Amino acid sequence: MIKVKSVLESKFEKIPLQLYDNAAQGSIAVAEEMAELIKEKSVKGEMAVLGLATGSSPKRVYSELVRLHREEGLSFKNVITFNLDEYYPMEPDAINSYVRFMKEHLFDHVDIDPANYHIPDGTIPIEKVPEYCAWYEESIELAGGFDFQLLGIGGNGHIGFNEPGSKVNSVTRLIALDHSTRAAAAGDFNGLNNTPRRAITMGIQKIMEAKRVVLLAWGEGKANVVKESVEGPVTDKVPASLLQNHPNVIFVVDEGASNKLIRKQQPWLVTQVLWDDRMRRKAVVNLALSLGKPVLKLTDEDYNKAGLNDLVTQQGPAYDINLKIFNELQHTITGWPGGKPDADDSQRPERAKPARKRVLIFSPHPDDDIISMGGTFIRLVEQGHEVHVAYQTSGNIAVPDDEAVRYSDYVHEFASSIGMQNGKTKEIYERVLNFIKNKKASERDTDEVLNIKGLVRRSEARATCRYVGISDDQCHFLNLPFYETGRPEKNPLGEQDVKIMMDIIEQVKPHQIYAAGDLADPHKTHKVCLDAVMEAVSRLKSKAFMKDCWLWLYRGAWQEWEIDQIEMAVPMSPEEVKRKRHGIFKHQSQKDNVVFQGSDSREFWQRAEDRNGETAQLYDALGLAEYEAMEAFVRWHY
Ligand code: F6R
C-alpha cells in the first residue's frame, strides 16, 4: 500500500486532495482503488462501470492495472468502460487516436470483453454525430452510470474535452477545441496545422453523476490550474472547478502539481510551521510582494495581520527579520557566476577559487543553454572560465519539415556547385523530398530525415557557441539514446544514457555543472535529462574532482524558480539582454512555426526576456537594486 504523503485539508481547498511524492506512487494508489472496486463488484456478481481518460496523466495508472492483471490475477471480465473523448475526425488506427491509445495502454493487455469498452467514434459522418452522441449517453445510462470516473485536467481547466464555457449540465457532443488545447497537442501531430480542431466529448453532466471522481494532475505545468480549480470560485471558465460541487471527488497530485496551493505557498496559514531559514525567507518575500512593500519597510503590524505573529514572536521584531532577509537576498546577486577572483567569498554564492574554473553546462535540447542561461553563459566565457556545453539530446523531432527540406536543398546545390554531386547524394535528396511531400500527419520521420533534422539543430547550437565565444571542441553532442524514438513519447532513461553522461563529466572534470531543473517541460524530456544528470553525479560523487564540483540548476523555457528559492541571481544590462536575444536567434528552426510551442504563443526569446525581466522586477519590488533582467539558479547539494 503506497503511503499518501499528505491529506492535510486546508481550509482554502474546496476539493479533497491526496498528495504523493511523485506520479508513480499516486498512480499506483489510484490503480489500487480501481482494482478494489472491480473486485468488490465481481464478488457481488455486478459489473464495474468505469469512465476512462487518455493523455499523459493516466498512463501509469493503466500500466499498474495491467501489472495487477498479469501478476495478481485482476480480471476485467466484469468491467464496462466509456472513454471521455476522441478527436474528430479521427480514424481508430491513426497514431494519435484515443482508440489506439487505450488499446496500447490497457485494453490489449487485459481480459476485458471488447464489446464492453466504448470510445467515442471519430469516423461518424458529421450529420450523424448528434444521434451518435445521444446513443453514447444512453449506453452509459443503460450500463447504470459510472461507479468511477478517472480524469486528467487540461492547462485551461478542461475535463474530458469540456473546454472553458462548458456548462455543468452539458452532454456528449462535438466541441471545438481551444487554441491552448490544440497547441498543447501540436507536438503529437507534427505542428498546429495538422492538429484536429474538434473532438467528441462526454459532457460534464455524466461526470457529475459518477459515484466517484478521481482527477490526476502531475507536474508543475498543472500547478496553476490545480490551484484555480481547488481554491478558486466554481466557474465554467475553469470546468474542473465545477467538481467542487461533486459529493465524492478527489484530486490526486504530486509535489509539482500542488506547488501553487496555499498549503505550499503560505503553509503558515494552514498549519503550525517550523521557522527555519527557508520558511522565514518564503514568508517575508511573500508578505513584501503581497503588500507591494520593500522588505525593509515591513512592520510588526504587517507581519501580525498576515498571520505571521509566530515568526515575529520567535525571531522578531520585524526590523531584525527584515534586515536578515534583505541581506540574504542581497547576497544571492552576483555579476560573477564563476566566483569573483581574489574577493572575499564568504557572502557570495560562488567560491573565489580556483579563479579560472572548468564549467560544464548541460542543455537538454540544443537551445536551452542560451534560452535559459544565455546571459550567465556569456559572462562565464568573458570572465575567462573554460566553458563546455553538452547538448544532451539531438532535439531532432522539433524541427519542422520545411527546415529539413531547406537544408537538404542547400546540401544538394552545394554538392552540385563544387562538382561533388553523385548518384548517391541525389538519391538521398530525392528520397527525403519525396518522403516529406507525402508524409501523413503524425507519421514518424525516417531515420534519414531525423538525421537531417538533428544536424540542423547541431549546426544552430554550434553557431550559438561561436557567437558566445567558445570553440567547437567545447561543444559536445551527447545524442542520448533515450530520446531517439522519433516520437514525442520517449524511452525511459537507460544505462547507456547514464554512461554517456558520466563520461563527459569525467572528461571535463568541472568545478561547476549547470543543468536544467525544469520539471514543467510539456514533453518531459527535461525531467529525464535532469534524472540523467542526478544519476551520473551520484555515481561519480566519490571521485576526488567531484569534491570540488558544484551543481547549479537553471529553469528551462517554461518556468522560473520561486523568488525565495533563488540562491544565485545573475543580473543583465539592457545590452546583455540584446546579446542573449541574438544568441537565441541562431536557432532558426525554433523560431516561427515551432513544433513544440506548448500553449504559450510567445517565441522562446520573448519568454526568456519576459521571465528574466520579471525576476529583476521582483528583486526591485523587494527593495533591492533595479536591473534590466536576471537569470536565476538554485544550488543542488548532492
Ligand atoms: C483525455 C482528456 C483530457 C486530458 C487533459 C490532460 O481523455 O479528456 O481532458 O485528461 O487534456 O492531458 P494530459 O494528461 O496529457 O496532461
General description of the model:
With 638 residues, the chain is of the alpha/beta class. The protein is built from 20 helices and 17 strands. The protein has helices spanning 23-43, 59-72, 98-105, 129-142, 179-185, 204-209, 223-231, 262-265, 277-291, 300-305, 309-315, 318-332, 368-382, 401-417, 423-438, 447-468, 495-508, 525-540, 574-585, 604-621, and strands at 17-20, 48-52, 79-83, 85-88, 117-118, 148-151, 173-176, 198-201, 213-217, 249-254, 358-363, 386-391, 475-477, 512-516, 550-554, 568-572, 629-636. The protein has a 7-stranded parallel β-sheet with strand order 1-10-9-6-2-3-5, covered by helices on one side. The chain has a 7-stranded mixed β-sheet with strand order 13-12-11-14-15-17-16, with helices on both faces. Helix 13 (368-382) links the parallel strand 11 and strand 12 (386-391). The site of fructose -6-phosphate has 14 residues, from loops. Residues 53-57, 84-85, 152-154, 158-161 line the site of fructose -6-phosphate (F6R).
How are the secondary structure elements laid out?
Blueprint: E1 17-20, H1 23-43, E2 48-52, H2 59-72, E3 79-83, E4 85-88, H3 98-105, E5 117-118, H4 129-142, E6 148-151, E7 173-176, H5 179-185, E8 198-201, H6 204-209, E9 213-217, H7 223-231, E10 249-254, H8 262-265, H9 277-291, H10 300-305, H11 309-315, H12 318-332, E11 358-363, H13 368-382, E12 386-391, H14 401-417, H15 423-438, H16 447-468, E13 475-477, H17 495-508, E14 512-516, H18 525-540, E15 550-554, E16 568-572, H19 574-585, H20 604-621, E17 629-636
Parallel strand pairs: 1-10, 2-3, 2-6, 3-5, 6-9, 9-10, 11-12, 11-14, 12-13, 14-15
Antiparallel strand pairs: 4-8, 7-8, 15-17, 16-17
Helix pairs in contact: 1-2, 9-12, 13-19, 14-15, 14-16, 17-18, 19-20
The chain binds fructose -6-phosphate.
